[in-house]
Specification:
Structural class: alpha/beta
CATH topology of the largest domain: Rossmann fold
Strand content: 5-15%
Strand order of the largest sheet: 8-7-6-9-10-11
Helix content: 40-55%
Number of helices: 21
Radius of gyration: 25 Å
Largest sheet: 6 strands, parallel
CATH superfamily of the largest domain: Glycogen Phosphorylase B
Number of strands: 11
Oligomer: single chain
């Protein structure tokens, strides 16, 4: 017992020292102390929660998930409060499926508690079990029919069941109880876009956490910019930034004396090569006006269909020219997104599924456009590989392709912005930007959408892709005959 107590005391001391280092800006030192504390007292749940929180704040999302999964295996949870805390941390870290058993235990202990039922419903939703989640949230709403958080969860579950109209109904009920909830309004914005109400969607998006300028520039609301300067603040991921970059070319902005665009550091060279005045996010710039990038459609009064005269709004003067050898198309493939993304399990495709549908087309030369892939993770067969570069190098490589086939990730937006033909494979319940149905999108004239017919059914999607590739081959053969 004395050894246990001394280990626990040492772990708590390490944790306190880590907090001091963190406050002083020494993130790596703080993490090292927190990790040492967990090793010293592996049964103490609070240490895992502190470490996982610090890892998330440091951007180490996958490490945070691993930490919490170790807590599930190793930490003592002596009561409902600890079980609930671990479950909540798992959901917050994007590992909601691992939280299901935590909340089931809470639910058994508190069968008449609406928060317990609602938390279990959220975990089941994260585990891609929306039918079970719907039954659970109904139970929560029978206990607390006016709980705004439960009503929002109900809306999200109906969305996952592809019932967008029903989801909007539950959103409106939640807003009737708590009208000033930013998260609920943004969710309504997503639903409005899916239902074709772009104007309402842009308005609701303004409730999101807006990026803040580092200067006292005046917020731009659409007033004339002639002779003035403006900075456009990039936000969210690189894919979102590439998607909304088109609006920077709008005449209202181009009338300014200078338009500066902030973006992720790894995309600066790409935007500069394409002629944009780009700087890394966080760079201090002094301008007359400032506007968040995703606010541009609302400020400009345009929708997704707006674009400049030419379809491509990222052009590289020195990019290679695509040369299609007759009967030998170069087809790039990206099958996975960032594993730290909350929705990655639903949008990414196991590489093993690609072999049959793609390798029935020997006339195609397949090119791996998947970053960070090892030889062991490659689909079977002969693939051309590219060097792992930044976004500019990726753009240059895309310009050598006849076609890109990709899941819903940043490279899809880059291809569309470049005017490269791209086939985008999306899940049964798609992201808001792709709409609820159809195989075309207003965002990119060169894009074609391939949708899952049912949740998780990538096999049917790949069968349809294979058929479309066959049609390309027949088109090439017909062209040869005509020539």
């Amino acid at each position: 017992m004395s050894t246990f107590l001394s280990d626990e005391a040492a772990a708590i001391t390490l944790c306190a020292e880590g907090a001091v280092l963190g406050d002083a800006g020494d993130t790596s030192g703080a993490l090292a102390h927190y990790r040492a504390a967990v090793l010293k007292a592996p049964a103490l749940l609070s240490l895992y929660l502190i470490l996982a929180n610090a890892e998330q704040l440091a951007g180490e999302v996958l490490a945070a998930r691993d930490t919490l999964r170790r807590a599930v295996r190793c930490a003592s949870r002596l009561g409902v409060a600890e079980e609930f805390a671990l479950g909540k941390a798992l959901v917050d870290a994007g590992a909601g499926a691992d939280a299901v058993n935590c909340f089931r235990r809470v639910r058994c202990e508190l069968p008449k508690d609406a928060a317990a039922a609602s938390a279990l419903a959220s975990a089941l939703r994260a585990a891609q079990r929306p039918e079970e989640a719907w039954r659970e949230i109904q139970h929560a709403l029978r206990i607390a029919p006016a709980n705004p958080a439960a009503l929002l969860t109900a809306a999200l579950i109906r969305h996952d069941l592809a019932d967008h109209t029903g989801a909007l109904h539950w959103i409106e009920r939640s807003l009737a109880v708590r009208p000033d909830s930013p998260a609920t309004m943004v969710t309504r914005g997503y639903l409005r876009h899916l239902l074709g109400d772009a104007t309402g969607g842009w308005q609701d998006f303004e409730a999101r956490a807006l990026p803040q300028p580092s200067t006292s520039a005046k917020p731009w609301s659409g007033e004339p910019l002639s002779g003035r300067t403006i900075i456009v603040l990039g936000e969210q991921g690189v894919g979102d930034q590439l998607q909304f970059l088109r609006f920077v070319r709008h005449p209202a902005l181009q009338a300014a004396a200078r338009v500066v665009v902030t973006c992720e550091a790894e995309a600066v060279s790409l935007l500069r090569a394409a002629g944009y005045d780009a700087v890394a996010r966080g760079t201090i710039m002094h301008t007359d006006f400032v506007v968040p990038l995703l606010s541009l459609p609302l400020r400009l009064g345009v929708n997704a269909g707006w674009r400049a005269d030419d379809a491509a709004y990222i052009t590289l003067p020195d990019s290679p020219v695509r040369h299609t050898t007759v009967g030998r198309r170069r087809v790039g493939v990206a099958w996975s997104g960032n594993p730290a993304h909350r929705n990655d399990a639903q949008r990414s495709i196991p590489a093993s599924l690609l072999h049959g549908p793609l390798h029935t087309h020997p006339s195609m030369r397949f090119v791996c456009m998947q970053h960070g892939v090892s030889a062991a993770d490659m689909p079977s067969g002969q693939w051309e590989t590219n060097s792992q570069g930044d976004w500019l190098e990726t753009a240059q490589q895309l310009c050598t392709l006849d076609l890109l086939i990709t899941v819903d990730t940043g490279i899809a937006h880059l291809a569309g912005a470049l005017g490269v033909r791209v086939w985008i494979l999306v899940s049964h319940v798609p992201d808001w930007r792709w709409g609820a149905a159809g195989n075309v999108t207003q965002w990119y004239p060169t894009a074609r959408i391939f949708r899952q017919p049912a949740r998780g059914d990538w096999s049917r999607v790949l069968t349809n892709v294979s058929a479309a590739l066959s049609a390309l081959v027949l088109s090439d053969e017909a062209s040869d005959v005509a020539a």
